[in-house]
Amino acid sequence: MYGAQVLMLLLACAAASSGVRVQFRGRSALEFTARAVALGPRPIASEAHAKLERMIVAHLRACGWEVTEDSFTAHTPLGPRPMRNLIGRLPGKSGKAVVITGHYDTKIMPGIRFVGANDGGSSAGFLMELARVLPGRGSNDDLYLVWFDGEEAVAEWTETDSLYGSRHLARRWQRDGTARRIKALINVDMIGDKELDLVYEIAGTAWLRELVWRTADELGHSREFTRNATWIGDDHLPFAALGVPAIDLIDFSYGPANRYWHTEQDTMDKLSAASLQTVGDVIVSVITKLEAK
After folding, report:
1. pTM above threshold 0.90
2. Angle at 135 (CA atoms; ends 98, 86), nearest 5 degrees
């Protein structure tokens, strides 16, 4: 079954790798999400987590991306744990970079079968669809897709027990100079909800947030891109702290009173291709606008 999934991913990238311009498809992003979720719960260091890593890397390579596996040991409340950020790069010529990120791990939830369709699944599947689409578009800037590991707290969310992958990569990119080259970093999280309601997250960079929301307005998606101002702790923060222009796209009203979040109810039936299409259309358009800056 797993081998068949990988073969389907390879075939999905055939058009992109041949240089044909392809369009973002929410249905395809939903299918990628479903393949990730079908592996079951995917907490750090689990076999399902490792299978998803292999699936993502195979997909990136089939679609023509340069792949880096950023492995490290995280010090957690449960002791040292191996983690791995997965990075795809399409090289450009400008010396600048645009980065789209999201996490692929699911939270450790003892006693329940938490498959994280929206929280961990939708961001992983969305980035896989971008990996299929972006190679056929061309870009003067470097394009990066990053699947962060260890976004979830191992025990309870604190500044040190959360965002392991993004904190590690931010430090690495600060040391090697990549951070200085980034025009914009857009993080996506919990974007598959049928009732999409993205918060106006205010911890990020104002001009980039306004560019994204203005683009959403132009494309007719004002309802989904709300003006409900909220501070959210997520994988954009370690980069914003370094002065990298960075924002977070997140729906934090998942089900009535957010009751699907971190529960067994976070399943595929709560997601829709239309929501993923909305976010995809906006991000692809924003990448084009950033290219012109």
Report:
1. yes
2. 60
